[in-house]
Amino acid sequence: MKKSIFTIALLLGLQVSQTVGAQNEQVTLRVQNAVRPLVEKWVAEYQKTNHNTTFQIVSGKPTNTEHQISFVTEQDAEAVFFARYAVLPITVKDSEAAKLLGSKRLNAKKLKSLFFVKDEFDDTKESKTEQALHIYTGNSQQSASRTWANNFKQETSNYKGKKISGDDSFINTAISRDPLGVAVNSLSNIFDLQSRQLRQNLAIIPLDIDKHGKQILEEGRLDDVIQLLEQEHFAEIPTGKIGVEYDHHDSQLNAFVRWILTDGNKYIHEYGLLQLTPKELTAQLHRAEQQDLAQK
User: Fold this and answer.
1) Per residue of the chain (296 residues), what is the pLDDT tens digit?
2) Angle, CA of 194, 199 and 141, to the nearest 5°
3) Cα 168–chain centre separation
4) 287, 258 Cβ separation under 8 angstroms
5) Of the candidates 66, 70, 16, 104, which has an alpha carbon nearest to the alpha carbon of residue 242?
6) Assign residue 280 a region: left if phi > 0, alpha if psi is -120 to 50, beta otherwise?
7) How far apart are CA 289 and CA 110, in angstroms?
8) Is 294 exposed, middle or buried (0-12, 13-18, 19+ CB in 10 A)?
């Protein structure tokens, strides 16, 4: 009798151990550097109330690893989106490029002409300013330069100048070493997320937008810029969406993504991103739930 009781207890113990092991299975978050601080914040907040989920944050291309969430831009149609990011043209403060551009106001047409090689049907000549400036753009799949190119209906291969490999923060370094350098980058790389001001050595290239928009960009306060771009659309300032791809069969991943779209949403501005509109956010939450149900 004692032997039977011991055997049953041992079997129950093994089952409990296996259940706990399954609950504590590690989730891999594959994240580009631009949103890594936000994801780290999410993980810290999520684990305060969800003690059975552990996370590993990694970079690089998505793999076939189980229990993985990949953070992607809107080129990935299957993603569930949680925020938008904005892209602005920049140069170095007080540089030769800043002086050349300081008295100008560039509209969408002039920005396209500045950054992209003209097509064979465009017989307009480059201005002296365009000829003098050096263009720097990102070369990664997640670079803000792709969103900038899409906005002007251009391929990234049509960019003038030099392409910088790696994280978009390296673009800032490249133009800081070139007095004639200009580039594009996302808000999180242009502004200091702690002081909420433009990074000390950067300047936004003057744009031909309405008076209110000009004033906001000239004052250079991140939260004002975010509010402006959530309320208004400018052809000169493209925005893109960022989201997640994951296996909807995985209940742990489903739970975390739903948390991102609800509780995690309140941290979006803190990390230089724009919130989706309430209608868009509701649609994404509904989409995630519908996909989850379809996979069950």
Assistant:
1) 444 444 433 344 434 333 344 456 789 999 988 899 999 999 999 999 998 899 999 987 666 667 899 998 876 667 999 999 999 999 999 999 999 998 889 999 999 999 999 887 776 788 889 999 999 999 988 899 999 999 999 999 999 999 999 899 999 999 999 999 999 999 999 999 999 999 989 999 999 999 999 999 999 999 999 999 999 999 999 999 999 999 988 999 999 999 999 999 999 999 999 999 999 999 999 888 876 555 55
2) 95
3) 11
4) no
5) 70
6) alpha
7) 43
8) exposed
List 203's β-bridge partners, or say none: 91
Give the angle 145-268-250 at the CA atoms, nearest 5°: 90
Query: Are the C-beta atoms of 165 and 190 separated by less than 8 Å?
Result: no
Q: Give which of 225, 221, 268 is closest to 88, Cα–Cα.
A: 225
Element (H, E) at 186: strand 181-186
Q: Which of 91, 107, 153, 100 is nearest to 127 (CA)?
A: 100
Nearest in space to 86 (alpha carbons), one of 209, 200, 176, 174: 209
What does the alpha-carbon distance between residue 167 and residue 37 come to, in Å, rounded to a whole number?
14
Q: Which residues contact 231 (CB under 8 A, 6 or more apart)?
A: none
